[in-house]
Structures are given as C-alpha cells and as structure tokens.
Design brief:
The chain is an alpha/beta fold. The protein has one domain: Glutaredoxin, CATH 3.40.30. The chain is built from 5 helices and 9 strands.
Length: 153
C-alpha cells in the first residue's frame, strides 16, 4: 500500500536524462507533483505525462514542480521526454529505491513473470515535505484522476 496523506515524503536522489543527480530534498520549500509511471514509450504513460505538460501553466502558477519517476534508464527517459516535448525532469529509478520507498512497486508487470515496475501513482508533496495527496490507479493501464490532482495543486 502506498504512503498516505500526512506521511513524510521519503527523500531520494535519482539521475535525470542528462545523468545529473536530482534529489527531492533540493525542492524543499516548494510543492512537488511526483508522478511514478511504469514505462517510457507506452500509450498510457505518454498520455499521462503529456497531460501534465499541458497543465504546466497551471502548475507553474501554483508554484508546483513536476518530477516524473520510472524504472527506465536515463537514455530511455531522455528519448521519451524529447519525443513528447516534456519540460519537467524525468528521473531514472532503475534500482527501484524510490519506487519501494513510496511503496508503489508493481510485481509481474504486464503479466511478465519477474518484471517489476512502478504502479501509476501520483503524490502531491507540500512545501513542508509532507504528502498532501495520493492517487494510485487500480492498475497501470488506467490514467490518474487529473481533475483531483489539479484541484489539489
């Protein structure tokens, strides 16, 4: 079960698409929309991240930083970001440390025995580092509740 509202958001440091380390703690004092997505270059993930990109003006006006995390390698995330003109950081969690810390791992992903990826999960983290909102879809093939997410930010 994913972390819940009111919990302290676990810190992490992951590589972005330029192989630079990015830590959640570097955004202390700022609200963060943290989106875990299962895999780059898949239809639902593309729809989700493009929807967040389309909402950037609203998110920027609300002072919210978007971070997207997957178990994909930085180069896959980089190609995915470029192909979809994504302006926010895509972070690679190939060791699945953050995915496990937020308790959003999905075992036997897509019915493939032994393949673990993240669930489709979105967290809004307050400027104080506390989780304000959690949305974990019933399965990774379902898009998140954008209206609820955007209402929260």
């Amino acid at each position: 079960m994913a972390l819940s509202v009111g919990a302290k958001a676990p810190d992490f440091t992951l590589l972005n698409t330029n192989l630079e380390p990015v830590s959640l703690s570097s955004f202390a004092g700022k609200r963060v929309l943290l989106a875990f997505f299962p895999a780059a270059f898949t239809g639902v993930c593309e729809a989700e991240l493009c929807r967040f990109q389309e909402s950037m003006q609203q998110l920027n006006n609300a002072g919210v930083q978007v971070l997207a995390v997957s178990a994909d390698l930085p180069w896959s995330n980089g190609g995915f970001a470029k192909a979809n003109n994504l302006s926010f950081p895509l972070l690679s969690d190939w060791k699945m440390d953050a995915i496990r810390a937020y308790d959003v791992s999905w075992e036997n992903f897509a019915g493939i025995e032994g393949l673990t990826r993240s669930a489709r999960a979105t967290f809004v983290i307050g400027a104080d580092g506390m989780i304000e909102f959690v949305d974990v879809t019933e399965n990774p093939g379902i898009e998140p509740d954008y209206a609820a997410i955007l209402a929260k930010v």
